[in-house]
């Protein structure tokens, strides 16, 4: 999966987006790569409702749920629920996601 344009543009300017106390709103490139490999290894032998290969994870909610892009839609941001392995759209763009997640408009 290739990086969505808006995420690529963000990574050209900064290696992640961080809040107070080092909270990552967008993971650093290295962490994004590590987390995507890890999640695929963990779930590869499980019966999954969705193929994780169809998603690019770039942030977490702090509760096990992960934020991601789908390779089907290059703009929409989804939250992947680690308990039921379902994805739900939460924002129509990275900018909307960041604004909503930082201000609490988007909550999990």
Q: What does the model show?
A:
The protein is an alpha+beta fold and 108 residues long. The protein has one domain: SMI1/KNR4-like (3-Layer(aba) Sandwich). The protein has helices at residues 5-13, 29-43, 94-103; strands spanning 17-18, 24-26, 55-60, 66-70, 77-80, 87-91. The protein has a four-stranded antiparallel β-sheet with strand order 3-4-5-6. It has a two-stranded antiparallel ribbon with strand order 1-2. A hairpin with a 6-residue loop joins strand 5 and strand 6 (87-91). The longest helix has 15 residues, at 29-43. It is globular, with a radius of gyration of 13 Å. The two termini are 26 Å apart.
A few lines on this structure:
With 108 residues, the chain is an alpha+beta fold. The chain contains three helices and six strands, in the order H-E-E-H-E-E-E-E-H. It starts with a helix and ends in a 5-residue tail after the last helix.
Q: In the CATH scheme, what's the topology name? A: SMI1/KNR4-like
How many domains make up the 3D coordinates? 1
The CATH homologous superfamily is termed SMI1/KNR4-like
Category by helix and strand content: alpha+beta
What low-confidence regions span 5 or more consecutive residues with pLDDT below 50? none
